[in-house]
Write a structure and sequence with these properties.
With about 400 residues, this protein is of the alpha+beta class. It has three domains: about 100 residues, GMP Synthetase, Chain A, domain 3 (2-Layer Sandwich), CATH 3.30.300; about 90 residues, GMP Synthetase, Chain A, domain 3, CATH 3.30.300.10; about 140 residues, GMP Synthetase, Chain A, domain 3 (2-Layer Sandwich), CATH 3.30.300.10. It contains eleven helices and eleven strands. A four-stranded mixed beta sheet has the order 1-6-7-8, covered by helices on one side. Strand 3, helix 2 and strand 4 form a beta-alpha-beta unit. Helix 4 packs across helix 5. The radius of gyration is 22 Å and the shape is flat. The chain starts with 12 loop residues before the first strand and ends in a 10-residue tail after the last helix.
């Protein structure tokens, strides 16, 4: 007997995702790693970069494997990246000018380098996931999309002085109610915002709801009452950033991708050049999934692409439509293989990834972005896929 308790069949399903601001300790580390990557790609597009960063009170450690002909001033780049995140005051107990920086970089392993030759075989084994759905115009799940927007707006209110007492660290969480696979209303919104001393809870709640939550959610505010919006429920949040919790690059994989709407292969993105399939193949998988959904072949698609070190082509490609397909899933899989070359070299070529475009992805998600240069968000294959499947123009289902 088929299981009736599925995403598409239940009248009520709660789904939650979170985001963090650029001042979150893990995101500080991601931004340092990608700032180093962008600096290297600006001068040496063929460099191999695998950079990881950790941070705590008064200290940043930069480590990894980097092979490049460009001289890199790691300390200078790190301080500039920290300053951009907003940590520019000694009161924060972590700031760009006074923190110590330790650099422990070595060259890429020759064994890995030999596997990634001129034909660009995969530099490692692994599983990469791409996802898209048609519940928002950006083809992103609603909870993670709104969570990112709240964190971005929180940071803008800090930078522009709209809420002048805010500090860089912050988080958001959005719970949506789904009915038969479609988002119908929001159930709960949570925001944690770092702030200066002496700020009363009511003032913080009023300011964030008025300047952050309401402008971002718009009509999705309908049905939310005061008890459904939680702002700094633990009380004051003065000590934050790496001084409050240690940070580590690559630790916000679910925030970086699709929230809890899709699985994750486990590999992180920031600090890795495009020869690393953890990054480039994940971008390509999003590119495929978004075009397939935009073509109307299915309302939701999760694509899994698997690689083996040294192999040019994926060793397996699999899809999950969650029962929302309008074309036989085997036809969808066949069309993906016909219209997309998912070898590492082709991904880098087709998405033009040997450019310094990665620092901007290190905050507020890598997908569904229109404010930065994200070639994996293009919809240039959708029409061809639609024609090949024999479909007419799809009707978008956006709540």
């Amino acid at each position: 007997m088929a299981n009736a308790n599925t995403f598409l069949s239940v009248p009520l399903h709660l789904h939650t995702s979170e985001s963090v601001t650029e001042g979150h300790p893990d995101k500080v580390c991601d931004q340092i790693a990608d700032a180093i990557l962008d600096e290297i790609l600006t001068h040496d597009p063929g460099a191999h970069v695998a950079c990881e960063v950790t941070a705590t009170t008064g200290l940043v450690v930069i480590m990894g494997e980097i092979s490049t002909a460009h001289h890199v001033d790691y300390t200078k780049i790190a301080r500039e990246a920290i300053r951009r995140t907003g940590y520019n005051k000694p009161d924060y107990l972590f700031d760009a000018d006074s923190c110590g920086i330790i650099v422990a970089i070595k060259e890429q392993s020759r064994e890995i380098a030999s596997a990634v030759g001129e034909d660009l075989g995969a530099g490692d084994q692994g599983m990469m996931i791409g996802f898209a759905c048609n519940e928002t115009p950006e083809y992103m799940p609603l909870p993670i999309f709104l969570a990112h927007k709240i964190c971005y707006q929180l940071a803008q209110c800090r930078k522009e002085g709209v809420i002048p007492y805010l500090r860089p660290d912050g988080k958001s969480q959005v719970t949506a109610e789904y009915s038969y696979g479609l988002p119908k209303r929001l159930n709960t919104v949570v925001v944690a915002a770092q702030h200066d001393p002496g700020i009363e809870g009511k003032q913080l709640w009023d300011d964030i709801v008025h300047h952050v939550v309401t402008p971002v959610l718009g009509p999705w505010m309908d049905g939310l009452d005061d008890e459904s919006i939680h702002i700094n429920t633990s009380g004051s949040f003065i000590l934050g950033g790496p001084a409050g919790d240690s940070g580590l690059s690559g630790r916000k994989n679910i925030v970086d991708s699709y929230g809890t709407s899709a699985r994750h292969g486990g590999g992180s993105y920031s600090g890795k050049d495009p020869s690393k399939v953890d990054r480039s193949a994940t971008y390509a998988a999003r590119y495929v999934a978004k075009n397939v959904v935009a073509a109307g072949l299915t309302n939701r698609l999760e694509l899994e692409v698997c690689y083996a070190i040294g192999h040019r082509q994926p060793i397996s490609i699999g899809i999950e439509t969650f029962g929302t397909h309008h074309v036989d899933p085997q036809v969808i899989l066949k069309l993906i293989k016909e219209h997309f070359d998912l070898s590492p070299g082709a991904i880098i070529r087709d998405l033009d990834l040997r450019r310094p475009i990665f620092w901007a992805t290190a905050s507020y998600g890598h997908f569904g972005r229109t404010d930065i240069d994200t070639p994996w968000e293009r919809l240039d294959k959708a029409d061809a896929l639609r024609r090949a499947a024999g479909l007419s123009e799809p009707e978008r289902t956006v709540s």
